[in-house]
Amino acid sequence: MRExxxxxxxxxxxxxxxxxxxxxxxxxxxxxxRWLAEAATSGIAExxxxxxxxxxxxxxGPRPVSRTVLCKDLSSAGVxxxxxxxxxxxxxLADIPYASATFVWPALAHQxxxxxxxxxxxxDVTAAYWRSRPRNSRLGAWASEQSRPIGSRAELDxxxxxxxxxxxxxxxxxxxxxWGGYLLRPEMVEFWQxxxxxxxxxxxxxxxxxxxxxxxxxxxx
Length: 221
Description:
The protein has a single domain (about 10-130, about 180-220), classed as Pnp Oxidase, Chain A (Roll), CATH 2.30.110.10. It has five helices and ten strands; from the N terminus they run αββββαββαααββββ. The chain has helices at about 30-40, 90-95, 125-130, 135-145, 155-165, and strands spanning about 50-60, 60-70, 75, 80-85, 100-105, 110-120, 180-185, 190-195, 200-205, 215-220. Strands 1, 2, 3, 4, 5, 6, 7, 8, 9 and 10 form a ten-stranded antiparallel sheet that branches. Helix 4 (about 135-145) packs across helix 5. The chain is globular and about 55 Å long.
């Protein structure tokens, strides 16, 4: 196999009108919704995927940790995702309840970055989303001690089989006691639009504690 020339990898963006500050007149949520809808209709797999970054407080000092999660709700209050509270990210958020989330759609030359405090979602919000999950996804949440080491795939499959047997006669599988949603309430949102010659458009919004816009500023690429 020919060795990949990673340094030579690049894409040339452009095509749609230049993003302007006026696109954010109604706040950050409408534009994020529009770009998310465009990603969905473009056939991008899991267009609601976002890279979530948290902080791990180690003996050597704070360390960033990132992984991909799915945004499962969006409102003017922020973005919601779900996980086990005892997972790595759950423990990190309990210690330092602050995170960033980044949506990336290279095929559309769009990216959105949010940063702000994170709070546990209300129980009724978690319950409503839980009821919408496929049965096998609910069983998987019961079977997995997320982020904990496990000896083999066979052992994980066995845990899933045990969870299926446990709830075999239960139609409404309950929410696990240590599983639920988190709301990232942004205090900063940045929109990125790919442009030719790497002169990309970047517009950043700063928000106050109530979610009102404090400033809208264009950044150099």
